[in-house]
């Protein structure tokens, strides 16, 4: 791996290798000394042009556990507010000795632009990790979700997985679908209103349901999505109450899934809109373990990029 920009097109062997590499890193968290020296002497720059709680923080923890120096660019107080371009900003961070960029951006494709710029300026030794670009991809979220499923369900090949809600605007859903299909999940369902599903979503090899109760019947994994209002400029949005009534995950709807179904959510959750608190905090939810596993998965990705 030179960069991690998307899960689309990555073979099963690479996805499995990342998950396998992450496994021992979950044990690092339990040690008294939590550090390993794999990125000692390397500088990781977190450049987040969109807000984040989980991704930015777990990348920072992961890089520190790998013994890297971590620099968090505060975009809001940086000179981008004075008109400096993305690539000029990057050139300056390269001049400070960056070895890896972890980038989030509202524009789909921004991390590709960065990777291409590094190639064009003969700085191929610097790796780029996409931490979420527009509605396009969020590869490490997809990977940590696969890690979570494998942890609880052991094997992908007998599972039915449902992704529910605003798939249209979701970079997470796209990364999850590619990963689930590549890892051999036989049935991936997407459940939501027509207005929130891509018109060509069936081309991704999923079954489409517009009735949530029908779609949840018998599933092993339920992945809930937030309404991504920040990407819906001009759209006619349903009220929170209307949305929750039809598409919110409640205990009575979850009862249609397998009794041991796991409930996942990438966060941030909007309680009472796409998920009821009784479910979010209930016995089937693995939402906080997802966050914890994210540290190990991000350690795996960064350590594999560093040894290329
Ligand atoms: N899942 C996720 O990307 O969360 P953050 O926006 O808090 O990073």
Task: Write a brief structural summary.
The protein is of the alpha/beta class and 308 residues long. Helix content is 38%, strand content 14%.
Write the layout of secondary structure elements.
Layout: H1 12-28, E1 43-48, H2 54-65, E2 69-73, H3 86-95, E3 100-105, H4 110-120, E4 127-133, H5 139-153, E5 160-164, H6 171-182, E6 187-191, E7 207-209, H7 212-216, E8 221-224, H8 240-247, H9 251-254, E9 262-264, H10 277-280, H11 287-306
The chain binds phosphoric acid mono(formamide)ester.
Please give the number of β-strands: 9
- Biggest sheet, spatial arrangement of strands: 7-6-5-8-9
CATH superfamily label of the largest domain: Aspartate/ornithine carbamoyltransferase
Overall pLDDT score: 96
Note the gap between the termini: 6 Å
CATH topology of the largest domain: Rossmann fold
With helices defined by DSSP (H or I, 4 residues minimum), what is the helix count? Answer: 11
Most strands sheet: 5 strands, parallel
Task: Provide the domain count.
Answer: 2
Q: Which kinds of small molecule does this entry bind, naming each only once?
A: phosphoric acid mono(formamide)ester
Q: Assign the CATH class of the largest domain.
A: Alpha Beta
Shape: globular
Low-confidence stretches: none
Strand content: 5-15%
The CATH architecture of the largest domain can be named as 3-Layer(aba) Sandwich
Radius of gyration: 19 Å
Which labels suit this protein?
single chain, 308 residues, alpha/beta, Rossmann fold, 2 domains, five-stranded parallel sheet, 9 strands, globular, binds phosphoric acid mono(formamide)ester
């Amino acid at each position: 791996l030179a960069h991690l920009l998307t899960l689309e097109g990555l073979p099963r062997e690479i996805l499995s290798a990342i998950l396998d590499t992450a496994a021992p890193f979950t044990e690092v968290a339990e040690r008294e000394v939590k550090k390993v020296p794999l990125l000692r002497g390397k500088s990781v720059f977190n450049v987040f042009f969109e807000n984040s709680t989980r991704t930015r923080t777990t990348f920072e923890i992961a890089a520190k556990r790998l013994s890297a120096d971590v620099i968090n660019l505060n975009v809001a107080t940086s000179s981008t507010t004075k008109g400096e371009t993305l690539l000029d900003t990057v050139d300056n961070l390269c001049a400070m000795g960056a070895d890896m960029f972890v980038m989030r951006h509202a524009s789909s494709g921004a991390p590709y632009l960065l990777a291409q710029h590094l190639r064009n300026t003969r700085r191929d030794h610097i790796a780029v990790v996409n931490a979420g670009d527009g509605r396009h991809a969020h590869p490490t979220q997809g990977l940590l979700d696969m890690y979570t499923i494998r942890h609880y369900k052991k094997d992908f090949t007998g599972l039915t997985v449902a992704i529910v809600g605003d798939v249209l605007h979701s970079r997470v859903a796209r990364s999850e679908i590619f990963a689930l299909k590549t890892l051999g999940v036989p049935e991936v369902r997407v459940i939501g209103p027509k207005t929130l599903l891509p018109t060509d979503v069936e081309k991704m090899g999923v079954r489409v349901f517009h009735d949530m109760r029908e779609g949840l019947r018998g599933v092993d994994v339920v992945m809930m999505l937030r309404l991504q209002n920040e990407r819906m400029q001009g759209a006619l949005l349903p009220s929170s109450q209307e949305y929750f009534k039809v598409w919110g995950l409640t205990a009575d709807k979850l009862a249609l899934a397998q009794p041991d179904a796991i409930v996942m959510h990438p966060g941030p959750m909007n309680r009472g809109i796409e998920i009821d608190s009784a479910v979010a905090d209930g016995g089937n939810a693995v939402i906080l373990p997802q966050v914890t596993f994210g540290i190990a998965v991000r350690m795996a990705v960064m350590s594999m990029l560093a040894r290329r």
